[in-house]
Amino acid sequence: MRRWRIAALMATVLAFAGAAAAESVVIYRCTDASGALTIQNNVPCAKGATQERRVMEVAAPVAATAVAPTPAVAPRVRPAVPAFEPEAPASIEIAERLPPPPLFECRTWDDRRYLGDVASPPERCAPLQTTGIGGATGMGAGAACELVSDQCTPVAEEALCDGWRRRLLEAEGDLRFGRFENRTAAQDEVARVEQVARESTCGG
Predict the structure, then answer these.
(1) Which of 66, 143, 180, 198 is 20 to 30 Å apart from 128, CA to CA?
(2) Does the pTM of the predicted model rise above 0.90?
(3) SS3 of 50, please?
């Protein structure tokens, strides 16, 4: 019986090695006329021999688990330090613009028209015709004037931007042609009007 167990174990090992895809193995125990014992795997005994047949269940071979190769680790390269470059100034968000200030179209006593941002400008001295003794006119008659106010009307809201552009042209003309004795004041007025037009909704 012990020899039978050993032979059966050997047959099982052979079955695993030679019939990996089989689900069962047939073991034949053969004893010939002289009493010699032979163990055969899936092969029946020879004619005239005493045969014992056993079927053994064999588990399916375990597939070897493929081990993924470890990917090669690329050497860590230290990034080059870029040359210093001055940062571009961050864009500054422009605050919501306000509508331009009111503007007035004014007319002087001698029918000269201009644009201004004051509803009631200072009074002007309108000259008066004078006569001298005996009704003489001219330099000998002296001089006199009358204080009068310019007549101003507000510019319509939808026309304010065009009005302020015209106002800037007028201020630049006054500076260019020297209509004011104080050139510095004329320059300041151009800068002021230009800033109003640029920083309002008229400036986009």
Answers:
(1) 180
(2) no
(3) strand
